[in-house]
Design brief:
The chain is mostly beta strands. The protein is built from six helices and 34 strands. It has one domain. Strands 2, 29, 30, 31, 32 and 33 form a six-stranded antiparallel sheet that branches. Strands 1-7-6-3-34 form a five-stranded antiparallel sheet, with no helix packed on it. It has a four-stranded antiparallel sheet with strand order 8-9-10-11, with no helix packed on it. Strand 10 and strand 11 form a beta hairpin. The radius of gyration is 22 Å and the shape is globular. Bound molecules: the ligand CC(=O)/C=C/C=C(C)/C=C/C1=C(C)CCCC1(C)C, ligand LQ5KYKQO and fe (ii) ion. The site of fe (ii) ion (FE2) has 8 residues, from strand 21. Its cofactor is Fe(2+).
């Protein structure tokens, strides 16, 4: 049985992010009771291995994601499931860690892609995996744990996918259960809470893991990596999906909630220490039939930038059991691409311009361009832009990632720089901010010095490419003024997002380190610390086993 159009309509009702209204169906958007999801605690110092290094969950035949039994000896550890319910241990340090580096680097990502003999097919489906490295006095302690989401616990209990993941849908055992599934989709109950995408430290010190579903917001303890509780949004804004990358500062949290019924986006903010999002304003889409995917968005000091990509959510694809080439999305070139600018203080739209088509997961930063009198004339917004080519989504299927043959199959990407004029002009510009050859035409997973968030900035850190490759395989430091890049590369290694940590007392924008986690070719894993100025290696802290690839990270300073 295939889903009907009328059921799609019910779904979009449930997916509405309209302020002041609850999701459409009975029980929709009902708040779950806050409860600790895991009680186990990891012992504190002295650092010691409290569980043996894991046996990766890779021996089973894969029905979906892999190339068959075992995946072969040449399969990179980056794409292997490494189940670690609870591990902590001192790491061997090669080189010299700066003694000022005092705090915890915490990375989240979908590091577990196998359930018994069933292999997930897409990178984004994997169950959330936290890896941390705590630095102190030139030493490093690592830890690794799965997030105890309802989706993960149910999958472990039943040995199968029980919630709707990025590309996976639970298999109905019978017609009755299929009907039940549709009903729970309308209410949002069947959507995953597998918070495998981002991790942020809120202004009040809580550490929050996120994905694209609102219910997938989970508070974790950055020391023990315990799953502490669901993060309950105590407001009436509703919405079942949101941007996976809120903008977080010491005082606030900005988020975007797409509205799939009346295509548009709700912009909301939350004070540090609060769980209540407040409605700031609404942007109506200029193209249709649904809002563009908003994995992330940028802000400036005074404005929120709302991107409207032609890669749009698609209710019908949401209902399909088998993934389409664009998963839950559809490409609507004819709908146009737009950038909207909302005033943070008033919620009013101050610009809405048409721009060339684009595809991006990640905005890097944005700032206000001013004239000699200090008047804001335009907004500059930078992103990792995939040359308006959606095939990057399919490249990230595990089968493709595991099947590198030496052929150069990574599609090109660039630092896409938007210029959004504030003088009422109908069009904005989009151009490469530097020659993409500088970073091997690979570009994603970016960070900046957080002190420059929303302000003029010069440096971005990201993953780039050394070709041939099938996935970004370098770390790159982009100089947006000189329009050059410095690149770090190790043969066969898969590094994750380089995260900038400033040296205490630093004045210069790049005075600090960039930290990344590397899944090495020989099956090992280590945290890599680069001097952010020279982009040269200072030290590496080695795990006693290999690490799966991971996505985003944050920094938790000690005693803050
Ligand atoms: C890991 C990453 O970058 C993205 C993950 C995206 C997810 C889990 C998206 C999930 C979704 C659903 C489960 C249903 C609604 C649509 C959508 C937000 C794509
Ligand atoms: C890992 C990735 C893209 C790599 C291609 O260049 C995108 C991840 C998106 C989610 O956070
Ligand atoms: Fe992301």
């Amino acid at each position: 049985m295939s889903p009907t159009i009328s059921s799609s309509l019910c779904t979009v009702a449930a997916l509405s992010g309209r302020p002041g209204r609850r999701a459409g169906q009975p029980g929709g958007n009902k708040r779950a009771v806050a409860q600790p999801l895991a009680a186990a605690a990891v012992t504190e110092a002295p650092p010691a291995v409290i569980a043996p290094p894991p046996r990766p969950v890779i021996g089973a035949p894969r029905r979906r994601g892999g190339r068959g039994v075992d995946g072969g000896p040449d399969e990179l550890v980056a794409w292997k499931s490494i189940r670690q319910e609870r591990w902590e241990g001192a790491l061997e340090v090669e080189g010299k860690l700066p003694t000022w580096l005092d705090g915890t680097y915490l990375r989240n990502g979908p590091g577990l892609w196998d359930l018994g003999d069933y292999g997930f097919r897409h990178l984004f489906d994997g169950y959330a995996t936290l890896v941390r490295v705590s630095f102190r006095d030139g030493r490093a302690v690592g830890a690794h744990r799965q997030i105890e989401s309802e989706a993960y616990k149910a999958a472990r209990r039943h040995g199968k996918v029980c919630y709707r993941e990025f590309s996976e849908v639970p298999k109905p055992d019978s017609f009755k259960s299929f009907v039940g599934q549709l009903a729970s989709l309308f209410s949002g109950n069947s959507l995953t809470d597998n918070s495998n995408t981002g991790v942020v430290r809120l202004g009040d010190g809580r550490v929050l893991c996120l994905t694209e579903t609102v219910k997938g917001s989970i508070v974790v303890d950055p020391d023990t990596l315990d799953t502490v509780s669901k993060f309950e949004y105590e407001d009436k804004l509703g919405g079942l999906i949101h941007s996976a990358h809120p903008i977080v500062t010491d005082t606030e949290f900005w988020t975007l909630i797409p509205d799939l019924i009346r295509p548009g986006y709700v912009v909301a903010r939350m004070d540090a220490g609060s769980n209540e999002r407040q409605f700031v304003g609404r942007v109506d889409c200029r193209g249709g039939p649904a809002p563009g995917w908003v994995h992330s968005f940028p802000v400036t000091e005074n404005y929120v930038v709302v991107p409207e990509m032609p890669l749009r959510y698609c209710a019908a694809n949401l209902l399909r059991a088998e993934p389409t080439p664009l998963y839950k999305f559809q490409w609507h070139l004819e709908s146009g691409s737009y950038m909207h600018v909302m005033c943070k203080a008033s919620g009013k739209i101050v610009a809405s311009v048409e721009v060339p088509p684009f595809v991006t997961f990640h905005f890097i930063n944005a700032y206000e361009e001013k004239d000699e009198e200090g008047r804001v004339t335009a907004i500059i917004a930078d992103c990792c832009e995939h040359n308006a080519d959606t095939s990057i989504l399919d490249n990230l299927r595990l089968h493709n990632l595991r099947a590198f043959t030496g052929e150069d199959v990574l599609t090109d990407a660039r630092v896409g720089r938007f210029r959004i004029p504030l003088d009422g002009s109908p069009f904005g510009e989009l151009e490469a901010a530097l020659d993409p050859e500088e970073h091997g035409r690979g570009m994603d997973m970016c960070s900046i010095n957080p002190a420059h968030l929303g302000k003029e900035y010069r440096y971005a850190y990201a993953c780039g490419a050394r070709r041939p490759c099938n996935f970004p395989n370098t770390l790159t430091k982009i100089d947006l003024v000189e329009k050059t890049a410095k690149n770090w590369h190790e043969e066969g290694a898969v590094p994750s997002e380089p995260y900038f940590v400033a040296r205490p007392g630093a004045v210069e924008e790049d005075d600090g380190v960039a930290i990344s986690m590397v899944s090495a070719k020989d099956g090992s894993g280590y945290a890599l610390v680069l001097d952010a100025k020279s982009f040269k290696e200072i030290a590496r802290a080695k795990f006693p086993y290999g690490l799966p690839y991971g996505l985003h990270c944050c920094w938790v300073p000690r005693d803050k």
